[in-house]
Description:
By secondary structure, the protein is α+β, with helices and mostly antiparallel strands. It has helices spanning 2-13, 24-27, 45-48, 111-115, 138-151, 159-172, 255-263, 314-326, 341-349, 390-403; strands at residues 56-57, 81-88, 92-93, 97-100, 118-120, 123-127, 133-136, 184-193, 205-215, 226-231, 268-273, 278-282, 285-292, 299-303, 333-336, 353-360, 364-373, 376-379, 412-414.
Amino acid sequence: MLQSCSKSLFSSLSTFPQRSTPALTSLGAQRCRRWYSIHADHATERLLEIDPTRLSITKTTTPKELLAPKDLIFGHTFTDHMLSLEWTASDGWLAPRITPYQNLSLDPATCVFHYAFTAFEGMKAYKDSKGQCRIFRPDRNMRRLNKSAARIALPAFDGNAFIDLIGKLVKLDNHFIPSERGYSLYLRPTIIGTQRTLGVGPPGSALLYVIASPVGPYYPTGFKAVSLEATDYAVRAWPGGVGDMKLGANYAPCIVPQMQAASRGFHQNLWLFGEEEYITEVGTMNLFVAVKDPQTGEKELITAPLDGTILEGVTRDSVLELARERLVPKGWKVSERKYTMAELAKAAEEDRVLEVFGSGTAAVISPVRKISWKGNLVQCGLPDDVEVGPIAQQMKDWIEEIQYGDIDHPWSVVVS
Ligand SMILES: *Cc1c(COP(=O)(O)O)cnc(C)c1O
């Protein structure tokens, strides 16, 4: 049973069209093996289709009391409603439903509990000065969730139709979003395999749902620069692995290293990779480093390349695009390239580190003060009495003015 299931999974995987795939026939003959990430894309038209016109809405009869904005804690409270869609291998996506926020009821043998058939997204909706709701770059999150889902043999879906439905949920629960600047509605799309089976194989049924949590500013009293522990004893992601996807299975194993870093007084892990100690990401954020070239003095903004070990952050992409558009004309170089912890430490020693910051949906931008590495503290360019560098501040301002609709920009999608 087990064998036949995994065999069929394997054979269906091998038929996926793949991007950046080395010629499989020559793999065995190559002296140097090239790892690659599988980007599965196996949905047939029929199974992918979501029909937003079939949406049913059941409103709650017991609306929750709204918390005072200042009492909101990230991810602790949820709105009145949720959006759900069920999928079966025989019928594809069934009619979407918005219902009161409620518990799921699943058989203890459901495959998600045993084999981690779960992937998620993190995105935000904002209220602009006219009271309209806006979602930031939702197409990116849909593309990423499809990529994650397909990699664990869960069904793909039509991202635009799903954005439409998310808009309906946001609109229905929009009174949960405080109007004050800095507040937003964190949206958590999740997809799980729901087949009741201990067999290891592609789930024959799935559930796609969205819950929403009103959140306050990540730094309510202004930026607080964090300190990191360069982590070399545990590895978050590796070539040919799945670290470039938001699979639930990637996150639980990071908590113990995070607790260990915290016990030594550091906020987050700085995940290193390989003998070379390449800098990859920080906690669940991408990392940017701004340094000066030792010879020319040219300023360079660096982040790790998307080589399969890096989560393709929407905020990362936004920082890169804005930097190319607005910093390059001012003489900056913008690089997606590999760089090592030794390289950063050397730059710090030579006083060439301008600033370091993380990027992610929750905080948008998170400045870094120092990094513990091999028993030393690498200082990241911030004077003692300063919590944020100029580029980090500029990026946060540029991104937020788009998110809150202060300026018109294609990245901000108004919920109609
Ligand atoms: C979600 C996530 C990020 C940030 O992605 P955004 O789309 O910018 O929120 C970075 N790294 C990891 C490991 C993540 O899970």
